UniProtKB/TrEMBL annotation:
Stated name of the protein: Uncharacterized protein
Species this protein is from: Mesorhizobium ventifaucium
Highest rank taxon of the organism: Bacteria
Amino acid sequence: MQDRLDHRRQCPPSDLVSIGGTYYILYRSRSHPTVVEVHQLAARIRILDEGPLVASHPHLEGRRR
C-alpha cells in the first residue's frame, strides 16, 4: 500500500485546484463551488468529488506547473 496524504480543497468555479502551488484541473459535471477530497500519492494526485474520482494526474514537482 502506498503512503498517501489526504486533505480537502475548496474548488472554485474554474475547476482548477491548487495543490502544493501546482494547479490541477477537474473534470466534473457540475460547476458550482464545492469541497473536493484530495489523495496525494508519491506519483499521482487523485481528486474525488463526494465519492467518485473526478481527476487523476501525475504528481508534478515544483510550483506553477
